[in-house]
Specification:
Elements (H helix, E strand, L loop, with lengths): L5 E6 L5 E6 L10 H51 L8 E4 L3 E12 L10 H4 L2 E10 L5 E9 L3
Antiparallel strand pairs: 1-2, 3-4, 4-5, 5-6
Length: 153
């Protein structure tokens, strides 16, 4: 059941002719509830996907920052250990106020090789394996490095 659309021309005080429309068409009803619900579901799906992607991007950036910092701190610690490898006595600690929340663990052990051509027997007992682990206080991230060094006499 549609109404007849009536139009009338009207000239206002400004002298501009305006077309006035009265009535409405029956088939111009807007969106149905189903269409709105489907649209909202699609938008929700897209937004959840974007937020998950953003969250994983932030996590990767945090991991990258930690790995970069941990590598530099491990090199600094290794440099300190190399200066006094034969007498080194600390095996765990932190980086004080400079890097709060980051700790380190160190293990120095004897390293023996089967191949005599690689290192002489005199130097065999001075040859040490150094394992350094840099980790966050929460334990969520860690960085490990293994190396071998010859202790100075």
């Amino acid at each position: 059941m549609s109404r007849k659309i009536e139009t009338r021309n009207y000239r206002g005080d400004t002298g501009v002719e305006v077309l006035l429309i009265y009535g409405f068409k029956k088939n111009n009803r807007g969106f149905t509830l189903l269409e709105v619900m489907i649209s909202v579901a699609i938008i929700a799906f897209v937004l959840v996907s974007i937020f998950r992607m953003q969250s994983s991007t932030i996590d990767l950036a945090t991991a990258g920052n930690f790995n970069t910092l941990a590598q530099m701190l491990a090199k600094k610690l290794l440099n300190d250990v190399e200066q006094d490898l034969a007498e080194w006595s600390e095996f765990e600690g932190d980086f004080s106020d400079n890097f709060p929340g980051i700790k380190w663990r160190l293990e120095i052990s004897e390293s023996f090789f089967e191949i005599d051509d690689f290192i002489s027997e005199d130097n065999q007992e001075r040859f040490k394996k150094i394992e350094i682990e840099i980790f966050s206080s929460s334990g969520s991230r860690s960085y490990k490095i293994n190396t071998w060094r010859l202790a100075h006499e």
